[in-house]
Every structure is written in C-alpha cells, then in structure tokens.
Input
Amino acid sequence: MAQPPRHGAGGRSGDGWPRPPGAGGEAYRADGPKPRGSDDDQQRRDFKKLLSEIRLAEPTPDLFDTTAEKIARALRPSAQHGPNKRSQVRRFYDELLRFRMRLPEAHGPPDGPDAAFHNALPFIRMLNARAAYAAERKSEGGTLVSREFTDFLRRLLEEVKDRRTLANACTLFEAVIGFMPPDRG
Output
C-alpha cells in the first residue's frame, strides 16, 4: 500500500494526514490563514473595551441605547440554540430587580449612606457566583450562559455602589434584554 506524501508544512503533518486549521503549519505562514482564535481574541478585546465604558454613576446618553444594543449583540448574536438565551439572561435580571424592589425606601439623598443597601450589597454581588455556576453548568445546547455574559454581569455589579447605581444597573440590564433576539426553539 502506498504511503501518503510527506510534507513539512503547508497544512500537513509529518505522517501525511491533514492538520486541522490552526494546528500548525499553515497557521503561521505569512500568506496562510490567521491562527485560529485571533478573531475571537479581537472580539473579546472589543467586548472588554465596550464593558469598560459602562459608568452607572454618570451614564452617558448612549448607555441605555447604543451601548446596550452592542452588548446584546455580543451576548446573543442570533436566536439559535446556545448560551445566553433571553429567558436565561432574564432570570439574572429578575433577581437583580428583586433586590432593588426589596430595599425599603431610604431616608435622605438617594446616593447617600444607607445601611439597608450596604447590607444587601454582598448578596447582590453574589449574582456573580450564580452566573459562574451557570457558565459551568451544561445543558443540551452547551452552557447556560457564556463567559461574555459573566464578564458583563461582573462589570455591571462592580459599578453598583448605591441605590442610584443599582437603579441604573437594572435599567441597563433591561435595555440589553430588550435588544436581544427572542428565543427560538
């Protein structure tokens, strides 16, 4: 039986079998395809930059509109199966909203010292742990939420410092869900 030809590079391994894209050879040639994941890396950097623009204490005019739409597109590019289904993301929004609604009315300025808020803040931030668990939990379509979603939630919750920023976090989260495509089975 004849052996397949041996090539040192160009997409073939030493044993003659084709290499998967990004496994070496052609991935590092100047005229060949880019290393696998480079587009993913750029998208991840762009998303991190987008998240860094979130300022809940002083929201920009575009925060609840353009920025929310970009975040939604990054979290859920289509309504196909996969992580970040609108219904799953909505669960985290509902939980954040419940914290906001459970806090009794504050006396004094809305961004002043508030014992009830500061007692609730550790539990609000615990949503990060729930998102991390959901990111690791497997369902029939993969994980329930993506790493991008956990990054979004982490950034959102680190901006929550008082009742006003909590209200703005809920508003941004609501806008992101509004821009997400509906779940399709």
